[in-house]
């Protein structure tokens, strides 16, 4: 029976980044993906500031930014005007237009390069877990033994269902038809005689049409046909507008569900397998990457047996809470879109959004830039440390570059950590109000040394978060 350390199920954004992170940490990783090749259509088309900040901690953002198209605001629904990212807590104050499929290609190449094995055309059917590991059965009769199983297998996750993990939440109240087609409608919304709209999004060589269905279909899994989409577009517009050359036809709704646990013994969930939410804020790929980035180094340490007590459980604690916030803010955006202009809470939020400071806070919430795992006295605590310029051994570098190896970094900016041999002595901008900082491998700040406070509290932070390097 083939053996691996971690079997990742699903080669979407979550599975591929998780696979790359595990391989970076020297863990034997196998990714099983049911489709023999990447599908020809593309669901998402953006990376947000938070995802770019995280990818930059592994040196992966720069190439994508060079290829993509920058937009200075965060996508949001139901709020007046754009959510501007200028002044937001990010090193990437823009959203990046880039196909999800391209992001997946880059992550897949990295995972392979680092040694992860990717088995395409391999569908997980079932698994059992015991004290030492998981035995997974694939559709082709192959059985794989792994120490851990990571379900990155999307919203209908077989892993989640078979692990007996609940998926409580709300069913969709409405569905929209989606068509990647060619047609002569202008970009943006086109209203029909009764005010309902057909929305047209530009895509390379085609357009994406989105139009709500009048009522939820009897079976949401019934395939969408060009005839159905055409009939709905014509009905909404009150005239015939020809749709041509369909590339992808689908349906999505506003269901919101959150896995009750992100971990069940040796089984973990990440990405859409752990949460689904209304289509507001174009956040799905970004959250999937965020989950994988949080899980990778923790799971790697658990596999190597070097994880501090309770480390792997912090994955559920941190990302389940983040998932709940995403469900709340995407549901709020949809509710805002549907709210009557006279509803007082909608009026209040819209006014907050028109105020520059309020606008920035909303942008940070909707993109996840406000993610803070353990708040403390210093504003950096629990948050992603900014990518400040540094000088190390006379060499110019920057904070994110020190994290490329996926290791924790103890940064001594003031010579106050003499007794700590692992500390990286560096000098940074003169206006920094920190003397030293402990960065987790994901770049979140586990400890801040204040000027004059020496190493107070550092030993405890190291015990909790500093995973030792592989032998
Ligand atoms: C129309 C639409 C537009 C979207 N637009 C955006 C956007 O603009 N921005 C954004 O951020 N997000 C967007 N999203 C959401 C985004 O596509 C998802 O949130 C994202 O793909 C989730 O990544 P994932 O890796 O968790 O899951 P997925 O990308 O769904 O990957 C799961 C993988 O697991 C595989 N799999 C499933 N079951 C098995 C099994 N049993 N064995 C082996 N493999 C299996 C699947 O084939 C798939 O490849 C959009 C979604 C839709 C539907």
UniProtKB/TrEMBL annotation:
Keywords: FAD, Flavoprotein, Monooxygenase, Oxidoreductase. One of its GO terms (molecular function) is monooxygenase activity. Residues 3-329 form the FAD-binding domain. Pfam families: FAD_binding_3 (PF01494), Rng_hyd_C (PF21274). InterPro entries: FAD-bd (IPR002938), FAD/NAD-bd_sf (IPR036188), RIFMO-like (IPR050641). Its cofactor is FAD. This is FAD-dependent monooxygenase.
């Amino acid at each position: 029976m083939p053996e691996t350390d971690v079997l990742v199920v699903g080669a979407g954004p979550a599975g591929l980044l998780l696979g790359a992170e595990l391989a970076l940490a020297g863990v034997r990783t196998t990714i099983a993906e049911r489709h023999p090749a990447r599908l020809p259509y593309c669901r998402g088309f953006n990376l947000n500031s938070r995802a770019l900040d995280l990818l930059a901690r592994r040196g992966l953002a720069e190439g994508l930014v060079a290829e993509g198209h920058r937009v200075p605001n965060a996508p949001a629904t139901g709020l007046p005007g754009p959510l501007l990212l200028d002044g937001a807590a990010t090193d990437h104050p823009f959203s990046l237009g880039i196909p999800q499929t391209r992001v997946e290609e880059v992550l897949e190449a990295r995972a392979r390069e680092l040694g992860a094995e990717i088995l395409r055309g391999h569908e997980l059917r079932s698994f059992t877990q015991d004290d030492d590991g998981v035995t997974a059965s694939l559709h082709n009769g192959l059985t794989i033994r792994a120490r851990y199983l990571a379900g990155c297998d999307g919203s209908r996750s077989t892993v989640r269902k078979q692990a007996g993990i609940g998926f409580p939440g709300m069913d969709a109240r409405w569905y929209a038809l989606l068509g990647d087609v060619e047609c002569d409608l202008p970009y943006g919304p086109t209203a029909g005689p009764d005010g309902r709209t057909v929305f047209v999004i530009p895509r390379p060589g085609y357009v994406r049409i989105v139009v709500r269905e009048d009522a939820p279909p009897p079976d949401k899994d019934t395939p969408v046909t060009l005839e159905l989409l055409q009939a709905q577009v014509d009905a909404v517009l009150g005239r015939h507008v020809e749709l041509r050359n369909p590339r992808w036809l689908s349906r999505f709704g506003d269901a919101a569900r959150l896995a009750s646990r992100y971990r069940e013994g040796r089984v973990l969930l990440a990405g859409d397998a752990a949460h689904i939410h209304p289509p507001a804020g174009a956040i799905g790929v970004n959250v999937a990457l965020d989950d994988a980035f949080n899980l990778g180094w923790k799971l790697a340490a658990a596999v190597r047996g070097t994880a501090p007590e309770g480390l792997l459980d912090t994955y559920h604690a941190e990302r389940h809470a983040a998932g709940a916030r995403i469900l709340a803010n995407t549901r709020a955006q949809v509710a805002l879109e549907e709210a009557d202009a006279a509803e007082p809470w909608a009026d209040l939020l819209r006014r907050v959004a028109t105020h520059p400071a309020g606008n920035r806070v909303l942008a940070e919430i909707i993109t996840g830039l406000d993610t803070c795992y353990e708040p403390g006295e210093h504003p950096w605590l629990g948050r992603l440390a900014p990518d400040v310029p540094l000088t190390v051994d006379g060499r110019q570098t920057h904070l994110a570059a020190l994290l490329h190896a996926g290791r924790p970094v103890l940064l001594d900016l003031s010579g106050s950590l003499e007794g700590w041999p692992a500390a990286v002595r560096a000098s940074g901008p003169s206006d920094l109000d920190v003397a030293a900082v402990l960065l987790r491998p994901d770049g979140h700040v586990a400890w801040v040394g204040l000027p004059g406070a020496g190493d107070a509290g550092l030993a405890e932070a190291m015990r909790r978060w500093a995973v030792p390097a592989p032998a």
